[in-house]
Amino acid sequence: MSNTLIIVAAFTAKQGHEQRLRQELEAMIAPSLAEEGCLGYQPYADPTRPDRMIIVEEWADTAALDHHFSLPHFAHVAKVLDEILAEPFTLRRLTDIPV
């Protein structure tokens, strides 16, 4: 059993900002994967709704995720998201179920 933390973040862009959302989320991949404790970071697009995207992230622990939230690239994307999202993004934290 792993003790990693899975994050599913969902985003809906304002009309006309769909491409900007995609670009900003894609720009987060490399710096996030370079962070200690980031085990996975992958955005996905909804093929039927270009205004919707999600990111599935895997972090070694809560401390690694908290550190991610404090870094400049996260602060940048958070500011941009405030401008281009139709509604606040949702963030789900998931952990393994003991089997």
Estimate percent helicity.
25-40%
Please tell me what the overall shape is: globular
The strands making up the biggest β-sheet line up spatially as: 2-3-1-4
DSSP strand content: 25-35%
CA(first)-CA(last) distance = 8 Å
Count of helix runs: 4
Main pleated sheet: 4 strands, antiparallel
- Identify low-pLDDT runs: none
**Would you list the SSEs in sequence order as H and E?**
EHHEEHHE
DSSP E strands, number: 4
Radius of gyration: 14 Å
- Let me know the average pLDDT: 94
Structural class computed from helices and strand pairing: alpha+beta
Question: Would you give an account of this structure?
Answer:
By secondary structure, this protein is of the alpha+beta class. The protein is 36% helix and 34% strand. The chain is built from four helices and four strands. The protein has a four-stranded antiparallel β-sheet. β2 and β3 form a beta hairpin. The longest helix is centred in the last third of the chain and has 13 residues. The protein is globular.
